[in-house]
Amino acid sequence: MSGSGYRLGIDVGGTNTDAVLMRGREVLATAKSFTTADVRSGVVNAVRMILDKAPEHRASIEAVMIGTTQFVNAFVQRKGLAPVAIFRVSLPKADGVPPLAGWPDDLVEVTGSHIYMVGGGALYTGKDYAPLDEDALRAAAEDARSKGLKAVAISANFAPIRPDIEEKAAAVVQSVMPDARITISSKVGGLGLIDRENAAVINATLAELSEKVIGSLQTAIADLEINAPIYISQNDGTLITTETASAFPILTCSAGPTNSIRGAAFLTGLDEAVVADIGGTTTDIGFLLRGFPRETTAANYIGGVRTNFRMPDVLSIGIGGGSLVRRGEGGWTVGPDSVGFRLAEEGLIFGGETLTASDIAVRAGQAEIGDPAKVAHLPDETVEAALDNLHRQIEDAIDQIKTSNHALPLVLVGGGSILVSRALKGTSEVLRPAHAEVANAVGAAIALVSGRVDKLYDVGAMGREAALEQARKEATDAAIAAGALEGEVEIVEIVELPMTHMKSGSVQIRVRAVGPLAALA
Amino acid sequence: MFIVDSVQDIQDMARGAVLLGTGGGGDPYVGELFVRAQIKNGRYPKVLSCDEIPDDAFVLSIAGIGAPSVIVEHLVSEKTLHRILARAEAFYGRRVDALISAEIGGANSMFPLALGAISGIPVLDADGVGRAVPHIEMTTFSIYGCKATPGIVMDDSGNVVTIEAVDDRMAEDLCRVVTGAMGAMSFGALYPMTGKQAKSFAVQRTITQTLEIGRAIRTAREESRDIFESLIDYLNSWDNRTARILFDGKITDVTHDTRDGWHFGRVTMTGLQDSTDECVVEIQNEFLVCRLNGKTITIVPDLISILDRESGEPLTGEMLTYGQRVKVLGYSADPMLRRPESLEVLGPRMFGLDEEFQPIETLLATA
Question: Which one of the record's GO molecular function terms can you name (chain A) (predicted)?
Answer without folding.
Answer: hydrolase activity
